[in-house]
């Protein structure tokens, strides 16, 4: 959502609300940063100079990456107010015309949210566009790169709850030293099971307490930080000098380089800050980070470092050891709640990522449940929820060590950051039209910093870093194979669609018996007559009086307004009674399960018939479907799920749809026939296509299509379930296609 000219009160209010949703993950990092950084051989260098060096790295990493890169640069690259990897990719697709989504049409560019910058291309931007246009493999490589970042972000959904909850609960061992590690793991698992079990209730029921918890947590750790600075080492401010980073490397060598895998955990959550941009305004998130989150966390890290300069032996329990005795248990309770809030934010973000991937044909269809009737973005995906829970429990029980989990976490976080940096470089060229030296400077500076951290995390692959690699490989394989199979299915449909000439040659009756009712043929094609229709009438030469080809497709924008969702056109001559309805969704739009599609569709078709011919002379050539005879595509206004069909003395009429009431205006004969056909019933015809690899295909391709893609097709959501089709009105047409 975009926020323009908002008042200061609104900005402050949104900034406060964002604390509970956006910063839960980032604010809990102090629980495990120093512990992970000083694991391994660096623990042998526990003197003040090394502690100063680690603090200096934390401060400058937090300042350069979180504050400078994300707050001041990346958050300006929003896609109609939406942020995240998918939003950046969508922005590039529209401006560089490198979309891998099928059925993209010129009419999609007329959507209100599709607007692109009309400024002239520079030689850099035109060159980059030409590269993608001429070489399809570069577009495919970019898609794989985006899928890498997306799969690593999903991996965060596994690792964040694990490390946050386990780190928070392990603090109890500071006071109850005889408590065995097995009990800490057991308590953590119970909290994780409870957290995932409550997901189906939605976050809106408890979201109002998220912001107070995170605010209390930030104020607690900053206050404790100030106390420790004055209590143990007031000169800790000297560590903010970058000179201590050089001294750190000089004294620790390769051990110091390896420890950077722990330092980078201080900025976990900055990608979530960008991804959650759509829930708040950019200004509010910047205000919250700059004036509260940033200073509070810096003070917390400084205070912990000040404590460590006098207590080298407490390095593995430094966070909880640094808490004054009088406030230990209250802070422990707040820390546990803050860890849960941070985990909740990442779990919700994972649901959103999966939903967006489904819209972009990069993930099989899953059941998406709306947990709030007021806030569209709050969703719950049962299959993903239980999968995340099982993976979290497996990591918690299998590793049992926050240091190893931290190594895995660091690699996932740094990879997503590097993907964002590379995408930002392309956005700066293609969208912002920046000069090449500015883009190169941005990529070299931030890219080199992130590559430094990635190299340190890669060294830790045998010690837990393999986990995000395995998870991302699995998710990437699923996403790419599904996208590949879906695109091949679309190519098959395009090659085998029924020509309009053969339809016209059949005459008005189409060579069939036309029975009363409306037949909805669901197809992946936005133009032409699908092969399943020809396959159906070949075996059963009878069809309904009114025929509607329905194509549900995604476009490269975050949201499509209800007024622009349906695109109606006529197929063939008026006597044929054939129409096409294209239903357009943005990648963040969700199909409502209670959507009254039948009545909405009939309302839209009747409105199209009533207004047909009134403004054809003013329509542009870009609105014409070349395979449809005299059938300009007509966006239907005010067609939403609240439209109802009611009975009147003139027969069934449409209300709230822009059609005049029969008392004032008599409907056309064709409209009355359509409404009468609606009374006779509506049938849904859906094609079940089964993909098989050609005999000449490689073994790898046969495995991907015949095993993986076939398994995903059979075990994830069927099309009729996702479309909420009543089984009593369903007809399925089976077809096999070879890729």
Short description:
This is Potassium transporter 1. The chain has helices at residues 8-22, 24-27, 33-37, 48-71, 85-96, 123-134, 136-170, 181-197, 210-232, 243-252, 254-263, 270-275, 282-308, 318-321, 328-359, 382-399, 402-430, 436-459, 466-495, 500-505, 531-539, 597-611, 669-680, 699-715, 719-722, and strands at 369-370, 379-380, 513-522, 542-554, 566-570, 578-585, 634-635, 644-648, 651-655, 682-692, 730-738. It has 739 residues and is α/β, with parallel strands linked by helices.
Put simply, the count of helices is 25
Derived from helix and strand composition plus strand pairing, the structural class reads: alpha/beta
Q: Distance between the terminal alpha carbons, to the nearest Å?
A: 40 Å
What topology, given as strand order, has the largest sheet? Answer: 7-5-6-4-3-10-11
- The overall pLDDT, averaged over residues, is 82
- Biggest beta sheet attributes: 7 strands, mixed
Helix content range: 40-55%
- How many DSSP-defined strands? 11
Unreliable parts: 616-632, 638-664
Q: Could you tell me the radius of gyration in angstroms? A: 29 Å
Our estimate of the beta-strand percent is 5-15%
Q: What shape does the CA trace take?
A: elongated
Protein name: Potassium transporter 1
Organism: Citrus sinensis (Sweet orange)
